[in-house]
């Protein structure tokens, strides 16, 4: 029952309270073209009149230009179910006495602990304050306000709502900021492990989208040419997925191309209602741009997070460049060492190491398709065997020239001198590799140098290893080395016919060579055709 007239309304019943509309109504503002999202407020009370009256007196309430939208629950369990499926609720007007005398009080820890919802603001309302003393409730429960229904005029309810929404806004902003920074930290960790520029650029798009919680739809590009009048697309996803490697100006909408190039020219981020375009400033001036299509304007916090992320990405580009420089230095050292080993070989022709490296890489790629080998031959393995294989005979620098250049069979002592090259080469490379942490070209080459004369049946040297105890890289090099040696002239013999060399390799499967490697070798031969 509702009683009263004019400026005050009374709801009669067990929970009797007064809503008093104090002062004239504010004029209705013109409806904006796009209405801002409403604040969600959940009313939890077993009296339908309370729901109706709250809606009535708060119908014109706004905070920061946003209206309120009310959801209704008539029991604690119903409220819990609504909260489970709608975590965006900012505030709860919660009755104490519902299906039980303390149903409202028991709901509070379930919201905080069971649902893990610490940001929603809870205003406890009761018509029977004596049943739940204010001091006990405030100290014993994680609530934000406690009001007797009899003291809740429309103005006081509005004041309490403003305070609650302001608090919710601040807490939500802090949580979003923390979550955004956590995502940036995770993204930075993911990016720092990538060592290829194309994979790094792809990951940039993925991680930017994850920070903003949007689809990965965009591109990463770098200036093109000395005039920097266009850009080249390094990575692209979504609508630009087919544009990788192409010039920006010929691959995307002219308006987008203009915005991207303007970011490169102005060296500043650009945000609008559709796109976030980040300028990625690198230490040596090799600027880049990441563009993500977001389809909505970013708020202030999101823009700050994007700026932080851009700085992290730029550092990643710098680190990638430094890594590439170091890697090139390592490759140069490997090539120099390989050339030193070939200097002792009168029959190598100066390109034996490169020939072997190419064949070894092709065999490894073919093996990768065989069952059980894909987990062994990853991208890092391929990179390291390509360079490490060039060092397999580095130990030959310690073999006397009289042994290397002998044009007849070696005697036992000379053969022993020759066989020492495996351990000698491994020792040289291992000593040098200790200056670099982790697996590297030198340590990988050391394993090959030591074991490339081991045999599948265990009759090889220097350790007599057999089967899978022989390092996979050494098994691959063993096949490639014998094939290259047979098909090229040596000081004591001419190159053997191709058919005879292939027969030798095939007959060695299961005795001298790993059968799987031999199968991969013939797969490579078939792919090459009839050429050597």
UniProtKB/TrEMBL annotation:
GO terms for molecular function: phosphoric diester hydrolase activity. The keyword Phosphoprotein applies. Keywords: Phosphoprotein. Residues 326-532 form the HD-GYP domain. The modification 4-aspartylphosphate is found at residue 95. PROSITE patterns: HD_GYP, RESPONSE_REGULATORY. One of its GO terms (biological process) is phosphorelay signal transduction system. Residues 40-164 form the Response regulatory domain. The keyword Phosphoprotein applies. This is Phosphodiesterase.
């Amino acid at each position: 029952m509702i009683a009263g007239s004019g400026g005050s309304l009374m709801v009669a019943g067990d929970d009797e309270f007064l809503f008093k509309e104090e002062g004239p109504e504010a004029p209705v503002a013109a409806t904006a073209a796009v209405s801002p999202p409403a604040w969600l407020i959940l009313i939890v009370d077993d009296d339908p009149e309370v729901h109706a009256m709250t809606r009535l007196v708060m119908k014109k309430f706004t905070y920061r230009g946003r209206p309120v939208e009310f959801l209704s629950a008539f029991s604690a369990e119903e409220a819990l179910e609504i909260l489970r499926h709608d975590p965006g609720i900012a505030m709860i007007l919660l009755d104490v006495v519902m299906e039980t005398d303390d149903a409202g009080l028991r709901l509070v820890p379930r919201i905080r602990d069971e649902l893990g919802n610490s940001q929603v603001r809870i205003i406890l309302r009761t018509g029977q304050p004596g049943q739940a003393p204010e001091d006990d409730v405030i100290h014993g429960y994680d609530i934000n306000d406690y009001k007797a229904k009899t003291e809740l005029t429309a103005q006081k309810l509005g004041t309490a709502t403003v305070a609650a929404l302001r608090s919710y806004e601040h807490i939500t902003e802090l949580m979003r900021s923390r979550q955004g920074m956590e995502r940036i930290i995770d993204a930075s960790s993911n990016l720092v492990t990538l060592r290829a520029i194309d994979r790094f650029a792809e990951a940039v798009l993925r991680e930017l989208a994850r920070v903003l919680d949007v689809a990965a739809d965009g591109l990463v590009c770098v200036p093109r040419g000395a005039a920097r009048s266009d850009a080249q697309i390094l990575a692209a996803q979504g609508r630009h997925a087919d544009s990788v490697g192409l010039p920006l100006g010929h691959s995307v909408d002219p308006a987008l191309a203009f915005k991207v190039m303007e970011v490169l020219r102005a060296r500043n981020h650009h945000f609008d209602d559709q796109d976030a375009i980040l300028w990625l400033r690198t230490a040596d001036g090799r600027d880049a741009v990441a563009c993500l299509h977001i389809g909505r304007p970013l708020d202030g916090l999101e823009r700050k997070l994007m700026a932080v992320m851009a700085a992290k990405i730029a550092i990643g580009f710098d680190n990638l460049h430094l890594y590439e420089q170091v890697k090139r230095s390592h490759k140069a050292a490997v090539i120099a060492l390989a050339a030193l080993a070939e200097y002792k070989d009168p029959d190598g022709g100066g390109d034996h190491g490169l020939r072997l490296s190419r064949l070894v890489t092709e065999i490894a790629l073919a093996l990768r398709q065989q069952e059980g080998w894909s987990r062994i031959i990853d991208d890092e393995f391929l990179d390291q065997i390509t360079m490490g294989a060039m060092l397999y005979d580095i130990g030959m620098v310690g073999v006397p020239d009289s042994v290397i250049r002998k044009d007849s069979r070696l005697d036992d002592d000379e053969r022993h001198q020759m066989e020492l090259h495996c351990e000698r080469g491994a020792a040289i490379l291992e000593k040098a590799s200790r200056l670099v942490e982790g697996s590297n070209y030198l340590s990988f080459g050391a394993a090959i140098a030591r074991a490339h004369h081991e045999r599948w049946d265990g009759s090889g040297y220097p350790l007599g290893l057999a089967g899978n105890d022989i390092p996979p890289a050494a098994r691959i090099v063993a096949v490639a080395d014998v094939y290259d040696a047979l098909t090229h002239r040596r000081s004591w013999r001419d190159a053997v016919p191709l058919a005879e060399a292939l027969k030798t390799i095939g007959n060695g499967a299961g005795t001298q060579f790993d059968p799987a490697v031999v199968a991969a070798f013939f797969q490579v031969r078939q792919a090459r055709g009839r050429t050597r």
